[in-house]
Amino acid sequence: MSWRASWTIWIWISRKERSRNMTRKENIQDIYGLSPMQKGMLLNHAVDPTSSAYTEQFDFRIGGDVDPERMEWALNRLSERHEILRTVFSYRKTDEPRQVVLKSRPPEFTVIDLREEQAPEALVEQFKTEQRERGFDLSAEVLVRGALLRLADQKWSFVFTFHHILLDGWSLAPLFQELFGFYASATDVEQRAVPPYADYIRWLQKQDETLAVNYWQQYLDGYEKAVTLPASAATDSYAHATHRFQLPNELSAELSAFAQARNITVNTIFQTAWGVVLQKYNHTRDVVFGNVVSGRPTGLPGIEAMIGLFINTLPLRIRTEAGDSFATLCAKVHKANFDSFPYEYFPLYEIQSHSQLKNNLLNHVVAFENYPLADQLRELGSDQEGGLLIEQVNVFEQTNYDFHIVVNPGTDFVVNFTYNEHRYSKETMEALQRSLITLLTAASANPDQLVDQLALCSAEDRSLVLERFNDRRQDYPAEQTVDRVFRQVAAANPQKTALEWNDQSFTYAELDAWSDRIAQQLRAKGLGPNNTVGLFVPRCPEMVVGMLGILKTGASFVPLDMANTAERLQYMIGDAGVQVICTRSDLRVQLPQTLDCLHVDELKQSSSAEVTEAAHQAESQAYLMYTSGSSGQPKGCKITHRNILRLVFGPDFIDFGPHQVILQTGSPAFDASTFEVWGALLHGGKLVLVGEEDLLDAERLKAALVRHGVRSMWLTSPLFNRLCEEDPAMFASLESLIVGGDALSVRHIRKAQEQAPGLRVVNGYGPTENTTFSTTHLVTEADLSAERIPIGRPLANSSVYILDQGLQPLPVGAIGEICVGGDGVGLGYQNKPEQTARHFVADPFVPGGRLYRTGDLGRWLPDGTVDYIGRTDFQVKIRGYRVELGEIERALEKLPNIKEVTVQVKELGQDKQLCAYYTAETTVEVSEWRKILSAKLPQYMIPSFFILLDTMPLTLNGKIDQHALPDPASARQEARTPSRALNAVERSITDICASVLGVQSDDIALDDNFFEIGINSLNMITINNRLKAKFEKNIPLTAMFEHTSVARLAEYLESDAGDNSQAEAAQAEEVSKSRGVLVKTSALLRRREDNS
Question: Does the predicted TM-score (pTM) go above 0.85?
Answer without folding.
Answer: no
